[in-house]
Amino acid sequence: MNTVGVITVKIPDELEVKFRKKILEVYGPRKGALGMAITEAIELWLEKHEEQK
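That's the XACb0070 ribbon-helix-helix domain-containing protein sequence above. Prediction below.
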């Protein structure tokens, strides 16, 4: 069974608008696109910081 976590964050408005526009370009207006993009961003962040050990 897959479970999902919920994270609530606050980011600058300008960054949110830029991120959402890029998500629309990459994924289109499909349901779940924001979650997919944030998951990808977190995975990339983790990879970057795991390499620094």
